[in-house]
Amino acid sequence: MLAYSAFLSTLLVYALASGGAVSNRTLVTISYRGNRLDIRHVPNMMAKVISASGGRAYALTQDDHECERCFAQDGMVYDLKAIGIQIVESKCSVGHSQILDYLRKAEDLLDIEFECEPDSEVSLVPNPLSHTAQTSHIITTKCNGGNSVLGTNDPASSCQRNLEVIRLGAAWEAVRSAGPELKDVILAIIDSGVDMTHPDLVNQFWRNPSDNSIGFNFITNSTNVADDNGHGTHCAGNAAAQTNNSIGIAGVANMDGSMPHVKLMILKFVDSYGSGLASDAMRALNFAVENGAALSSHSYGYAIPKKLLETGFKNAAAAGHVTIVSAGNNRARLEDDAHYPCSYAPEIPSMLCIAASTSDPTETVSLASFSNAATFIKVAAPGVYIYSTMPRGSYGYMSGTSMSTPTTAGVAALLATLGLKGQDITNIIINSRTTGIPNEFNLSDIGEVDTLKAVQMALKQVISFAASNSLRGYGR
């Protein structure tokens, strides 16, 4: 099968700093006396105060009344309860500026606190490396025979030397030897969708108990998450393609192809042109948390900080959700040139921002030439010429921190199957990383993912916790 076209080998969703909002949606969060307040309750509260003042309080304008009519209409407000954000829909006849003015009046009258931001566009940026030489790659002739280091019979795993670098095969063997009872885990891929019939992915999907769907499409508001771009399918296969099924490649998270404990929840918000909305990224994150995903992989970003997106990620973390995000491909020092959501990571302990490292086990590991870096970025994973699933049942190469991110998300999901949760997962990945890898930024604290050491640390922690509970009499 031919690899997917080179022009689709684009990486990393990135917000256009100058593009402006492409929807009329407004993101908002309101608190009143320390509690979250639904924007739809504000008009009644305002009316009571104005009435009690005998009309001496603010006189509402026509725009204010239009805001109130908008809030009252069915389907005009998305309530993202799991992450504490609301979205006022673009079908309303008022925009961000009118809603902002209205909430400022409410702030004065009701003593509320609020954040209110317009929606913004996100887009794919060009591939940091040329893959022209790889686009005619045929797996039956160039990737064959499995991988003895990984212990996999997937023919194209011979082209996954990047997984040898992170000692994945030895980590799988350590889990098998320890024989723990593995937990079922849901990993959300928040991206451009997936090839829903790909033979290496079709058995790996989470199923929604209400309708048997594998996720949601926030562009069309449907359950059709077919990938018309390619990026999401590549990320999904990297994280958790079916392993040891004698087909294609091996995925990081599942070592047993016949009984995958990590299931992929596919959440599509990026379209065929590589564009999406920040509001839809938040809707996807909310869906993941509400529907039991322990972790999510985010290979996108934006240059301008968004307070409400930071709030969404923080609230997801507070619910125990782990987010793995990409560092970006601009060869930049992020203290000087921020890249979000990665740049939120110092404030969110269960968010891991992942840089890209080289992928050849026969060479000295270093930071990839295109990767961003920062003092707060502690972990890198292979991101150069990563071979994975592509649409139409094919396979192909991509490079970038977009690829490093689902690799690490797969490792994090593997740790979750051992019983780890939340910040315990991110702490172990950080604490088990290799010693500092060479980089042009002279940062000594960036290390590469070491899956074997991470698994060993996780098993020790899980066994110690179980023994402690046994001594206390728990679980009897």
Characterization of this structure:
- This is subtilisin.
- Keywords: Hydrolase, Protease, Serine protease, Signal, Zymogen.
- Residues 1-17 form the signal peptide.
- GO terms for molecular function: serine-type endopeptidase activity.
- The protein has helices at residues 42-52, 62-72, 96-110, 139-142, 161-165, 168-178, 231-240, 278-290, 307-318, 401-417, 422-431, 451-472, and strands at 11-15, 26-32, 35-36, 77-80, 85-88, 113-118, 121-125, 185-191, 215-217, 262-268, 275-277, 295-298, 300-302, 322-326, 351-357, 379-382, 386-390, 394-398, 447-448.
- The protein folds into two domains: 6-14 and 123-464, Peptidase S8/S53 domain (Rossmann fold, 3-Layer(aba) Sandwich), CATH 3.40.50.200; 26-118, no CATH class.
- The protein starts with 10 loop residues before the first strand and ends with a helix.
- The longest helix is centred in the C-terminal third of the chain and has 22 residues, at 451-472.
- The chain has 476 residues and is of the alpha/beta class.
- The strands form four sheets. Strands 9-10-8-12-14-15-16-19 form an eight-stranded parallel beta sheet, with helices on both faces. Strands 2, 3, 4, 5 and 6 form a five-stranded antiparallel beta sheet that branches.
- It is 30% helix and 18% strand.
- Helix 6 packs parallel to helix 12 (451-472).
- Helix 7 links the parallel strand 9 and strand 10.
